[in-house]
Amino acid sequence: MKTLLEAYLPTPGDLTTAEMQSARGTLEMWLRDTALAGPLQDTRPGSPFGMWVLDPFAQLCAGMQNATGKLRDDLNVAGVANGVVWDCDFVEAWLAGLGAVRQESLDVVGYVRLEFSANQAVIIPGGTRFVFNTADVFLPFTAELGPVVIRPVGLPVTGPNMYVLTPVSASTYAVVLPLKGYTTQGVPAGSEAKIDPTVALPTLVRAAAVTTFANGRVNNSVPAMARRSMETLFASGFASRGGVVRHLKQTFPDLTGVAATVSGDVEMTRSAATALGVGSRTVDVYTRSSARTVVTQTVRLEYVVSQGNTAVRKFIGTWQPLGVATRVDGVSWAGNTSLRLKPTIFSSSLAPARAPLLSCAYSTLEKMEMVIDMPMNGNLPLITTTQDDSGVYAWFTVTYETDPSIPTMQAFVDAEGVAGMDVLVRAPMQLVISRMVFHYDKEPGVLFNTEQALADVSSYLGGLFAPDRLNPADLNDIVYAAGASRINSVEVQADLRLSCAQYAVEAGGAMPSVNYRVAILTAIQVPQITLNDILALNPVYTDPNAGTPAQHMGAAGRRNVACALLPSALMFHHDL
Amino acid sequence: MNGIRMIFHGMTGWDLLPDEEVSGFESTVQCALVNMAMQRGSSRMHPEAGTDLLAQGVYGLLTDLNTTKHAANFAAAETREFINGNTASGPKMSNLFLQPSVFAPPRLELNAVFISDSQEQIGILLTS
Question: What is the ipTM of this complex?
Answer without folding.
Answer: 0.88
